[in-house]
Amino acid sequence: MMQLEGKIVVVTGGAGLLGQQFCGAIAAAGGLAVVADRDAEAAAAVAAAIGARHPGRAAACALDITRKDSIGAAIAALQQAHGRIDAVVNNAYPRNGRYGRLFEDVEYDDFCENVSLHVGGYFLVSQQFARFFRAQGHGNIVNMSSVYGVIAPRFSVYDGTTMTMPVEYAVIKSGVLHLTRYMAKYLKGTGIRVNAISPGGIFDGQPESFLEKYNALCSGKGMLDKQDVAGTLLFLLSDASAFINGQNITVDDGFSL
């Protein structure tokens, strides 16, 4: 039941760290993974690599989640090419060059821009795909949130490093969760499901001192590898989760307990 045989699944930010893993898992499960990214060359390269392993199960698509015309063009092209779209995964991670500062150093304009890019982009993608899904009669939206959309930051794990947990991130990811609930309720009865996944930290070369403190708060493994979230995504995209709607699944090896 976890198979996605023949399903057309769009993954925004598909050329990124998690996006590549998600697209590969979708293709391996029998679906067609649409690598949707504003970097068209990167999207094409990822789709080609996946296609080499799973022939005919990956396609590239240029898509900027902050532009309505870009989203509309992508939907139209996919409909023409495949006749339908079964799901979209909001996974892109847009931010400006000043993102990641300490709370007291964040400028108002940067805060607003980063929240707008990320939550606004998820809203815009969801709105435009929901319009298509309504006309189609079915659809599935999965939003990527974070454990820090569920709990308050544990700032102690960043002690002794140059890292922090940006205030924009906490606002964005908690906003994504309520956007998920709102849309699930608003779209109830239309054949469209909306759910979210909240991963814990994903390993990406973080300092050892940070990893030690982070891992000590987990149940066993600690910091996740990028492939550790893919199974939950496949579940939410598959018919195994047909009656799950408006929910958030936290995947964090117990970090939030």
UniProtKB/TrEMBL annotation:
Gene Ontology molecular function, alphabetical: oxidoreductase activity, acting on the CH-OH group of donors, NAD or NADP as acceptor
Protein name listed in UniProt: KR domain-containing protein
Organism of derivation: Massilia glaciei
Superkingdom, natural source: Bacteria
Keywords in alphabetical order: Oxidoreductase
Protein family per UniProt: Belongs to the short-chain dehydrogenases/reductases (SDR) family.
SUPFAM superfamilies: NAD(P)-binding Rossmann-fold domains
InterPro entries in the cross-refs: NAD(P)-bd_dom_sf, SDR_fam
PANTHER family xrefs: 3-OXOACYL-[ACYL-CARRIER-PROTEIN] REDUCTASE (PTHR42760:SF133), SHORT-CHAIN DEHYDROGENASES/REDUCTASES FAMILY MEMBER (PTHR42760)
